[in-house]
Each structure stands twice: as structure tokens, then as C-alpha cells.
Amino acid sequence: MLLLEGISNIYKIKILVENCMSSLEKWQIDNDKNGWQSPIAFSNDNVVRKKLPPLQFGNYERKFNVSLRNTGHTVQLDLDTTDIDCDDLPVVSGGPLEFDYTLDHIHFHWDVEHTIDGHKYPLEAHLVHYKTSTGSFRNALKFNDGLAILAVFYDYGNCKENIFKEFVQGIEDVSRNVSCGVPVDGICFCGFLPNYVKSYYTYQGTFNAPGIHEVATWVVFSEPATIEKSQLEALSNIDTEENDHPPQKSSPVQEMNDPSIIYNGNFYAAVRKFIRDTRRYIWEAKGDN
């Protein structure tokens, strides 16, 4: 009798596991169809070319105070909103965005998330904005259009001045202290953007930290900004909660199954890309020799 009951219980557990796996597979398929996965491998084969209105950046030229901290997974810049009127905060609108979105924070991925034509850049920054009408980042996670995330690639180059020079010392201060934060004054967020912002990919995707939230409109600029190799080394040389080095593991790159990615570009953007690619191929060829 006990043997029969044991077999019956094992069979019930087997059915339960199979049902869970079936639900998980269906969720995966539905998400593939809807395009609700980040990050994405961009290529000419999986995009729809479409002319969108220009992106509008409000208060991006102003200087703000931030808190620079080691989250245990990455370096993050949190906007200090103390004594700042809501109308004076950095805001992005236009393009694929139907509403205004207010900047909440910036974090970095040196195990880069997205790829373009199979190429991975050494660094990717995510400028995370929340829908202004929701009032906060936390509230925005409740809405399927709650976040707008601007993704900026960085390539190596010699640059006399860039935004990273303004807080490299702060990175060294927090690199060995998980969750520790230090104030950094006078950050101008336009310095994180590439020189050319009229060319980008956009899609509806997920915000993956912490958890997975299907609430994000992604805008991924096709033109990279510049960072010095020593700056990236300082940025990525941090202690983490797991004490692993390198301290990041990027999310799996997704191949979209339907043409739900929009590419907003023009002939000028294509010329700039051709020049960048040519320079990279020459540089890589020299490296092989």
C-alpha cells in the first residue's frame, strides 16, 4: 500500500514538473513573439527602417550632483534630486517615446549587452529614465511603458576630455566597498551621449536588474562614444558581492523572431558607420600582424 502511494506521489510530482516546464516554454515562446527580451543582436536582417521624430533632451546640458556607488554588480551614478525642481531634471522625449521620461540613474556593462552586426564594444552605458508622470522609478515599474533606457556604446580612443575624467577618482574610492557611495559634483549628462544621436535602434524590451520587468522602451545608439582604456580598467576593477572577476555576466543576447526592431538612420549615418567599420578592420588587421 505504501509503495503504491509512493508511486502515485512521484507520478503527481512528474505531472506538476511537466506542467511547469510547459508553462515556462510557452512564456518563452510568447516573449520571443512579442519581442520582450533584452539584450538584442542587431543586424540588417532583423530591423525595419523607419523615420522617427528627433529625440529631445531637456536639461542634459546642466550640471548635477550625483552619488557614485558600487552596487555589487556594477558602477552606478544616482542623480541627486535634493532641492531640485522636477522641471529642472534631465528629461528625454521624442523619437519612439510618446511621453516625457526623467533620468533616474546610469549604470555600466563592460561585459557588453547588445551587439551590432556581431560586434561587441568594450563598454555599454544604460541611462535609465522613468515615465515622468509616474513620479518615480519604483512606480514606473508598474506600467508597460514605464521606462525609457538609452544605451550608449563606448570604443577605445585617445580623448583629451571626456565625462569619465570627472569621476575616475571616485570609482577608485568605491571599488573595494560594495554598496558604498561617494558624492560627485558637476556632472553634465550630455557627456555620456555619442556625438551623433540621430541614428539608433529601438524596441520594446525588458529591464533586467533587479528581476525582469517588461516595461522598457530601448533606444540603442549605433554610433559609439569614446573611452580611454585606462578609464575602463578603473571602471571594471571593482569588488562585487560574489567576489568574481570579471564581475559581470551579461544576459544572453536574443535573436528576434519578428521584425519588431526599428532602425532610425539616414545616409549620413551609413557613411559614418562605413568609416568606423573601415577604421576598425584596419586596426584589427594591424593587430593580427
TrEMBL record:
Stored Gene3D superfamilies: Alpha carbonic anhydrase
CDD domains according to UniProt: alpha_CA
Any one Gene Ontology molecular-function term assigned to this protein's record: zinc ion binding
Domain annotation Alpha-carbonic anhydrase: ranges: 13-265
Cellular-component GO terms for this entry: cytoplasm
Source species, domain of life: Eukaryota
Pfam families on file: Carb_anhydrase
PROSITE patterns, alphabetized: ALPHA_CA_2
Family as reported in the entry's similarity comment: Belongs to the alpha-carbonic anhydrase family.
UniProt xrefs under PANTHER family: CARBONIC ANHYDRASE (PTHR18952), CARBONIC ANHYDRASE 7 (PTHR18952:SF124)
UniProt name for this protein: Alpha-carbonic anhydrase domain-containing protein
